[in-house]
Structure formats: structure tokens, C-alpha cells
Amino acid sequence: MQAIESTSLDLRVGDVVEIRSQAEILSTLDENGELDSLPFMPEMLQYCGQRLTVDKVAHKLCDTLTRSGLRRMENAVHLTGVRCDGSAHGGCQAACLIYWRHAWLRKVDPAQAPPAAPPAAQLLPLLTIASRRPPAEDDETRWRCQATELLRAAPQPLPVRDLGQYVEDVRTGNVGVLWSARAFLVGTYNRLQDLGAKRLPPPLRFRGGRHWGNLRGTAVQTPTGQTGLQPGDIVRIRSKPEIEATLNADLLNRGMGFDAEMARFCGRTARVARRVEHIIDEHTGRMLHMRSPCLVLEGVICEGAFNASCPRSITPYWREIWLERVTTPDAQDAGAAGVR
After folding, report:
1. Comparing C-alpha atoms, which of 10, 6, 9, 67 is closest to residue 310?
2. E-strand stretches of 27-110
3. Of 76, 34, 82, the residue nearest 59 (C-alpha)
4. Does residue 22 share a domain with residue 137?
5. Is it the case that residue 3 has pLDDT exceeding 70?
6. How far apart are CA 185 and CA 163, in angstroms?
7. Could you tell me if 63 and 132 lie in one domain?
8. ∠ CA 65-283-254 to the nearest 5 degrees?
9. Higher pLDDT, 178 or 221
10. Is the same domain home to 262 and 329?
11. Do residues 115 and 50 lie in contact, with contact meaning Cβ atoms separated by under 8 Å?
């Protein structure tokens, strides 16, 4: 099966699109269930024929696989509220925001009545097979999904100094002018800090060569803490100094990172959305089972404020030790209303 040429639409935030039928999408996919190396996953089938709104134009992404920086993505968007539920990938709980190639969508007038639904194509068997890699030596299932294949789907690095990306962020409606300007300045600052860390002796490095946010882990042995928090509980995110005391020099707490994007929420109140116990390892495709479950908070996503306005909207994972339960009525009301 040969994938057709990728389609390019002039999509912006707020545009209404209709997800094409299974038969139309099948005609765009190769034998691996991909278009331009991006898989169409079984979890996406439920949206065929639906009309949804463009949430972000996914013209770039941050590389969470090799930490190489930003990558350029072509002809893709994120749709409002559409995250992977992991149902076809072993129940993975990462809840990644799904990528949609333009060829899988059509731009529509919201006032126009939707057409009658065409018969469903036999797309599920192909996608189910494509969602798995060859088994490991121990016969453990290894998965393929959009997150594991992102470097193939977006192979071209996008330098911080590429000014076109900031213009595109504003043109498409991803962010405003001031937000985009800050993203450029922070990216430039971090780049200079990286150069200083490579070329200058420690005493001459500005703030130790640390990135924007100036986070500094102070723990020799990172502590743990379990408070039994459950979905629905209201919590306050601890202060930056309190969390820094739980991090090592690499800003990790027992392997889980804390960064400046998360520090922006310190002191705020939110509701616990869910506990996360297993997610797919983007590197190997294996299912990782966390020894200490972490938490996801309602309304708390990475906004790319300090990462060149990356539109992936990843949900940060929070150690229980970084949170404190809140029981006062005022805080309960604030948490119910979302992050403030």
C-alpha cells in the first residue's frame, strides 16, 4: 500500500474541521499505518466523521526522546480535548495530545450540515498490527504510537534562532505577540547558558550555567513521600524552595524530572485528575510500571512558556512529595474552579 501525497491546509486555532471517513484515511496510509512516518492510531478511529476545533497548529514540537531541542513538524494540528486514551496500547496512561495530519481532515463551515456517514472501512486490523513492534527477547509486548515515532515524523531540527517559528506561532493563533517574544528571549538565554557551560570554567558561568528559572536541586539522596492522594482531592503545589530540596543536581526525584515549566505553578491550587501507574517508554516501546505512582492535576499542562511555545501540551507528572493536601473551604472552591 502506498501513501498518497500529504495535504496542506491553511489551518489556524479555532478553525472547525471534520475528521475524514475511515475509507478516506485508509487511502492516505502506507503498509505501516502511517502518513509521513506519523501513525494513525486505533484510538483515533472513534473520531472519524466528527467535527472538532483546532486547538493548536503543531508546526513544531519538543524532542522528549533525545532532548535535542525543537523539531519541525509539517501539516499537523492538535484538536481541542483529543488525547490518546491508551485503549489500544495496553492502557497507557500518558494521555498524549494526538497529532492529526491535514490529509486526515477537511476544513468545514460550522453552519453546514454534516454529510451522511459512509460505511466504515476495515481499518482497525491494520492499525492494531501497526501499533505493536516485534516482541522483545523476553516476549514482552513493545508498542508503537505517535510518541515513539515522533523523531521520524519530525526529523528536521528547528533552531531557537529561527525567527520564522515565532511568527508562525502568532500567525496561526497558537500564542500572542508578547508570549512569542518571551519564548524567543528565554530560548536565546538558555542557548547562551549552554554555550557558557561548555566553554567557561564554573566560577565564570552566570548562575552556574543553569537555564531560565534557575532551579537548583540540593538533595544528596532524594526523599520520597506518600500521602494517599486520590482523584478529586484538592492540593496546593509546594513552593519552589521546598521542591528544590527534593531534587538532585540533575533536577530529578528518583528519576522523575522537575523543570521551570512546572515551577510556574508553584503555590497554585488544583484538583487531582488521576494517578498514573504505567506509561509507554518512548525509547523502547515497553510498558513502564512506576514503583511510585505519580499524579496528574486538572488544568495543569506544559504551556511551552519557557520552551519556545511548544504546542504539545504535555501533562506534567507530580510526585506526592511536591504537593500538599488542602482542606479549607476557600481552597476547595479554588481547586474546583481549576488552576489559579
Report:
1. 67
2. 34-35, 38-39, 51-57, 60-62, 70-72, 76-79, 100-101, 105-107
3. 76
4. yes
5. no
6. 11
7. yes
8. 80
9. 178
10. yes
11. no
- Residue 175: what residue type? V
What is the average per-residue pLDDT within 267-286?
96
Same domain, 112 and 177: no
Count of structural domains within the chain: 3
pLDDT score at 6: 63
User: What domain range includes position 246?
Assistant: 216-336
DSSP-assigned letter for residue 116: P
> Of the ranges 76-80, 106-110, 134-138, which is most confident?
76-80
Residue type, 202: P
Residues in the chain: 340
Residue 134 sits at the vertex; the CA angle it makes with 130 and 140, to the nearest 5 degrees, is: 110
> Which DSSP letter does residue 151 get?
H
Cell of 71: 523539531
In this structure, the answer to whether residues 22 and 153 fall within a common structural domain is yes
Distance of alpha carbon 235 from alpha carbon 238, whole angstroms: 9
Same domain, 201 and 226: no
Cβ(81)–Cβ(89) under 8 Å? Answer: no
pLDDT tens, position by position, 102-127: 999 999 988 787 776 666 667 888 89
